[in-house]
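Aim 2, interim progress: modelling of the 3-iodo-tyrosine-bound target.
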Amino acid sequence: MQAHNCKPLDDFIEYPPEEMSKRAQDWYQQIKRRHSIRQFSERVVPQNIIETCIKSAGTAPNGANHQPWHFAAISSPEIKRQVREQAEQHERRFYGGSAGDQWLNALKPLGTDAQKPYLETAPWLIAIFSQKKGGVEATDKQQNYYIHESVGIATGFLITALHNAGLATLTHTPKPMSFLSKICRRPDDERPYMLLVTGYPASDATIPLHALKKKRLEEISSFL
Ligand code: IYR
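Predicted structure of the complex, ligand included:
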């Protein structure tokens, strides 16, 4: 590693092993309370909370530090209505057969269907876009690298930041999603990656039991 153009790492915090172990446990207890929900309250969430969570997402590791993402945060009732209308149109085709039996059968235990009222009920929809071209400056138009990995990690950071702030989320991926580019007025070299719904859960919000079946540590890991 070349030493030029670097500064000392001065914000790393080392914890004693016992504290590290406790922090790891505490974090697991926090994050295991994150659930995708589909019933949102209309309660308003201030924009500054969403802004700070997007700033957290923007710290994600990514290819060549080009930060190949854009977050379009929608609270306008009219734009949310348009998103719902278009998403439901695509979902009706999806559930009407275009998904294929295998996919539809895999979704049965979740109980989802083409109706997406939460796209209007929730106070915020965050449309996440990936950028094919960019650079470390927002105006750059160089090639971007590891775009999906980068935007995927940033989306994970965003979900985690929102959960930590005390908000519920739903990752929504209508198929196809290209209508989001138009609604959000995004340029041609960006692709919609995911729609994140966020806000307070409705008082009667539920979690599908299917979603609670988490694989055990031994099933998801190996130690060599
Ligand atoms: N986009 C559809 C279908 C859907 C697909 C998967 I994979 C899910 O985990 C959940 C839903 C919908 O939102 O209903």
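The chain has a mean pLDDT of 97. Residues 77-98 form the longest helix (22 residues).
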